[in-house]
């Protein structure tokens, strides 16, 4: 009895399977990719570019100032000459004649300069004194302030303070007066000048001598 020949079975490797199916996978993938890209471009919303245009202002030409020519630096100052001591014969025995009253008697001396008289009554000025003048008639001044207070300002409750310059002579009499600091209301300043004419003072003293002086006194109007 003869044995039949059995065909040998050879197993297919993975590399061979890849080579056999490569063409199908490649063209299938190309077809799928073509459909996906086509659908994407067909159904994708339309895109528009944003307007980024801009307007530029007109450029103004500026005229540059002319070039300034810088002058050359000044010449160097020459060095001063070195002083030289002169040769001279000086007598070392020099004396100054003494000054005596016998040679210069008092009777021959010139008189001292006369002091120029200054009229201080012309305008307010500093006048020295040791005892200030004092008001002698305060009650009369108060009555004058009540009498001269402008009714319209008094009824409205408006007051003010004016400072008045007084020129007082050697006898204490007021020779001149004027506004030094305004109250801010012309009517109150006029009333202060009317009251100033009522003031009476004692004389100012500079040590033990009566002197004319300029002094300041405030006159205040207020509703009580």
Describe this entry's structure for a reader.
By secondary structure, this protein is α+β, with helices and mostly antiparallel strands. It has a domain of 84 residues: TolA/TonB C-terminal domain, CATH 3.30.2420. 25% of the residues lie in helices and 14% in strands. It contains four helices and five strands; from the N terminus they run H-H-H-E-E-H-E-E-E. A three-stranded antiparallel sheet has the order 2-1-5. A hairpin with a 2-residue loop joins strand 3 and strand 4. Helix 2 runs antiparallel to helix 4. It starts with 13 loop residues before the first helix and ends with a strand. The model has no long low-confidence stretch (mean pLDDT 82).
Strand portion, in percent? 5-15%
Mean pLDDT: 82
Order of helices and strands: HHHEEHEEE
Question: What would you call the shape?
Answer: elongated
Helix content: 25-40%
Question: Briefly, what is this?
Answer:
The protein has 224 residues and is of the alpha+beta class.
What attributes characterize this protein structure?
224 residues, alpha+beta, two-stranded antiparallel sheet, 5 strands, elongated
Secondary-structure blueprint:
Blueprint: H1 14-43, H2 138-148, H3 151-155, E1 160-168, E2 174-181, H4 186-196, E3 204-206, E4 209-211, E5 213-221
Helix pairs in contact: 2-4
């Amino acid at each position: 009895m003869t044995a039949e020949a059995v065909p040998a079975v050879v197993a297919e490797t993975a590399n061979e399977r890849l080579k056999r199916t490569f063409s199908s996978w490649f063209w299938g993938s190309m077809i799928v990719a073509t459909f996906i890209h086509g659908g994407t471009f067909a159904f994708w919303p339309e895109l528009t570019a944003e307007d980024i245009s801009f307007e530029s202002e007109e450029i103004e030409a500026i005229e540059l100032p002319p070039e300034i020519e810088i002058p050359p630096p000044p010449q160097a100052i020459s060095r001063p000459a070195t002083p030289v001591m002169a040769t001279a014969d000086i007598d070392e025995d020099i004396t100054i004649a003494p000054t005596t009253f016998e040679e210069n008697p008092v009777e021959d001396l010139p008189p001292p300069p006369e002091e120029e008289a200054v009229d201080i009554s012309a305008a307010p000025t500093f006048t020295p004194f040791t005892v200030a003048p004092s008001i002698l008639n305060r009650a009369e001044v108060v009555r004058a302030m009540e009498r001269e207070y402008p009714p319209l300002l008094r009824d409205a409750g408006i007051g003010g303070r004016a400072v008045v310059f007084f020129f007082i002579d050697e006898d204490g009499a007021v020779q001149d007066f004027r506004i030094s600091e305004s109250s801010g209301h012309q009517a109150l300043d006029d009333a202060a000048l009317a009251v100033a004419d009522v003031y009476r003072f004692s004389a100012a003293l500079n040590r033990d001598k009566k002197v004319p002086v300029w002094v300041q006194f405030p006159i205040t109007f207020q509703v009580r």
